[in-house]
Write a structure and sequence with these properties.
Layout lengths: L4 H40 L1 H35 L21 H40 L3 H8 L4 H4 L2 H14 L5
Helix pairs in contact: 1-3
Length: 181
């Protein structure tokens, strides 16, 4: 016994909804992995970050003391003067020290790129599986040879992007570099 028209309609709806949820779950998982990767990078460079934080704290303490010393010097000068207004244009501001680490940036970029590539691959697999299931449902409903022939006319990826094209591109690259093909 074959699947009824009503069952095909219902199955089509279920397949579409289920794959919509799966795509959202892939995106959610991508975000979770990206957060986990960022945390791992943060942990890996925690000692370096602490060193920078400690240095900035020490600089801040030095600048705070310098501001107190300047304030005290101005007050002393004012007390020793024979009048007039002594003004101070403003406090000294501490510079902010940053540490740039190329390895850290490269690691974060590499992890993020890998996660994105995995998510894209997973989404592609889902797209293929959904298309295959929907195609199976449609094929079962087709009754004429013309309808079946129509679907067989959809090209495959290997027909659209044959490996011979890759070989042509590689040969052209080798020619540009002066290497034998």
């Amino acid at each position: 016994m074959s699947i009824t028209r009503a069952e095909r309609t219902e199955l089509r709806s279920v397949v579409k909804q289920q794959f919509k949820v799966l795509r959202a779950e892939v995106q959610q998982r991508r975000a979770e992995l990206a957060a986990e990767a960022s945390e791992r990078v943060r942990q890996r460079y925690a000692a370096s970050d602490k060193q920078v934080d400690d240095l900035n704290w020490r600089i801040s303490e030095i600048v705070d003391q310098a501001n107190k010393d300047v304030r005290d010097a101005v007050k002393a000068a004012q007390a020793d003067s024979d009048g007039g207004q002594w003004a101070w244009s403003g406090a000294i501001h501490a510079p902010r020290i940053h540490h740039q680490n190329e390895d850290r940036f490269s690691l974060q970029t590499s992890l993020t790129s890998g996660i994105d590539a995995q998510a894209k691959q997973a989404l592609l697999v889902l797209e293929r599986q959904e298309a295959d299931l929907l195609r199976q449902l449609a094929m079962g409903a087709l009754e004429t040879d013309e309808a079946h022939a129509f679907l067989r006319g959809i090209p495959t990826v290997s027909e659209l992007v044959p490996t011979s094209r890759l070989q042509e591109l590689e040969a052209a690259f080798d020619e540009e570099k002066g290497q034998p093909a």
